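Sequence design from tokenized structure. All designs in this work follow the same two-part layout: the structure record, then the generated sequence. An example of the structure record is given first.
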């Protein structure tokens, strides 16, 4: 019987590469055009707006109280229940839209681990996500998902040798540096 290890539960970045690597266990059964991935764990901090978290919590408690009420069992509180559940869904959607993912430098991560980085509050990180100076280390989750999807698309494309690349960029190089990758497509 083969021993199976537990899956890695950390956020991971997929590295795509050719299966020409002979160390790959299934390299002989795949063509050289197929892609395999290796997962590298990444550390992310999620920042939520504390005001919105409190509003979501209050709305969830109100919806739960309506469900527990004796009128709910009789079907008399259906409109109130639906309204309360819609409010919870609306607030959760707003919370997710305002969620900020941040990846700090090594110094910031050490300071955070030691408990001396109390200045990294939601307001500070959110402000940083909007400025160009630190856009590579903090961004809203919707922007991050778009960036990650674009990265996966780029990773699936055929490898192009440096000598085959155009001398001048045909479009402006994307500003993707800092978060988890650097793409120098214009070089």
């Amino acid at each position: 019987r083969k021993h199976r290890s537990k899956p890695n539960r950390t956020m991971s970045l997929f590295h795509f590469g050719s299966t020409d690597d002979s160390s790959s266990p299934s390299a002989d059964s795949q063509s050289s055009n197929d892609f395999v991935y290796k997962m590298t764990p990444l550390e992310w901090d999620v920042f939520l707006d504390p005001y919105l978290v409190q509003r979501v919590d209050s709305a969830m408690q109100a919806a739960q109280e309506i469900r527990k009420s004796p009128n709910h069992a009789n079907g008399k509180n259906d409109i109130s229940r639906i309204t309360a559940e819609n409010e919870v869904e609306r607030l959760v959607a707003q919370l997710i839209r305002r969620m900020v993912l941040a990846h700090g430098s090594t110094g910031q991560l050490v300071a955070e681990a030691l408990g001396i980085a109390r200045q990294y509050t939601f307001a500070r990180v959110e402000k940083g996500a909007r400025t160009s100076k630190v856009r590579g280390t903090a961004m809203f989750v919707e922007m991050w998902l778009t960036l990650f999807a674009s990265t996966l698309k780029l990773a699936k494309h055929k490898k192009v040798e440096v000598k085959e690349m155009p001398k001048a960029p045909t479009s402006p190089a994307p500003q993707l540096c800092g978060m988890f990758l650097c793409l120098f497509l214009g070089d």
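Residues 1-32, 171-187 have pLDDT under 50 and may be disordered. We note this feature because it recurs in several other targets discussed in the main text.
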